[in-house]
Amino acid sequence: MTTQEQHQSNIDKMVFSRAHFKCMANVEAAIKNDPGITYLVQAINAAGCKFSLKQIVCTDEIGNKFGGAMKRVFPEENEPKPMIPDMSKDKILINQDYAGIVDEGITIRHELIHAFDHCRIKDLNENDCYKIACTEVRAANLSGECKFTKEFMGATKYSLSFLGRKVSCVRRNAIKSLMGLPQCALKAHEFVDAVLTSCYLDTAPLPSVFDYPTPETSSE
Ligand SMILES: [Zn+2]
């Protein structure tokens, strides 16, 4: 490596560290200020899967398609499959290259809804595009990423125009997520439309799409 290359490499590492640091600071702030994140982690644990806030990490290994992703760690072939998924080694990856561009709190909620679905569905296979479409609809709906339409429309939360806009936003975002998966991309619209109504109405673990209950204060 020439001196010039070494210099460039040092600069690249500095940029990497800065993005990582910024992302981690945003993640920590989101965890601290957003009780919805703690609530979802508690719901995953209440469903029997072990998952902690420490498993939410910033990385540059996702590529540029997604703001976040779930990294599941499955048992080895020769290991017994637990009745309830062991999620203690899983990670929620937050794309540090998007730090300051996206709202990390919304990204974390989005991935936590996926984590909850992985926990309760147990066999959420990444090749089952209908099930993937369902969890994408739920994540778009319950993360808050389509919440802006309420303010944008100046509408009350139950008005028809608001609900119509919100469903459109959820559908659009779910399709976009599926388009990023080669195994589902070609029929992304079809998969999402087939499950949209039922999965939009499935708000578990929330009592309704508008309610993030206060988390238990005893844990985390
Ligand atoms: Zn997603």
| CA(first)-CA(last) distance | 47 Å
* Widest beta sheet: strand line-up: 1-3-2
Can you write the helix and strand succession as a string? HHEEEHHHHH
Name the beta content range: 5-15%
Family: Belongs to the peptidase M76 family.
Membrane topology: Peripheral membrane protein
EC number: 3.4.24.-
Pfam family, one: Peptidase_M76
Care to give the gist of this entry?
With 220 residues, the chain is mainly α.
Structure explained in plain terms:
- The chain has a three-stranded mixed sheet.
- The chain contains seven helices and three strands.
- α4 (129-142) crosses α6 (160-179) and α4 crosses α7 (188-201).
- It has two domains: 1-124, 2-Layer Sandwich (Zincin-like); 126-220, no CATH class.
- Helix content is 52%, strand content 6%.
- By secondary structure, the chain is mostly helical.
- The relative contact order is 0.13.
- The longest helix is centred in the N-terminal third of the chain and has 31 residues, at 3-33.
- The protein binds zinc ion.
- Residues 110, 114, 136, 139, 177 line the site of zinc ion.
- It is found in: Mitochondrion inner membrane.
Descriptive tags:
mainly alpha; binds zinc ion; metal ion binding; single chain; Zincin-like; 220 residues
Fold blueprint:
Elements: H1 3-33, H2 35-46, E1 56-59, E2 68-71, E3 91-95, H3 104-121, H4 129-142, H5 148-153, H6 160-179, H7 188-201
Helix pairs in contact: 2-3, 3-4, 4-6, 4-7, 6-7
The chain binds zinc ion.
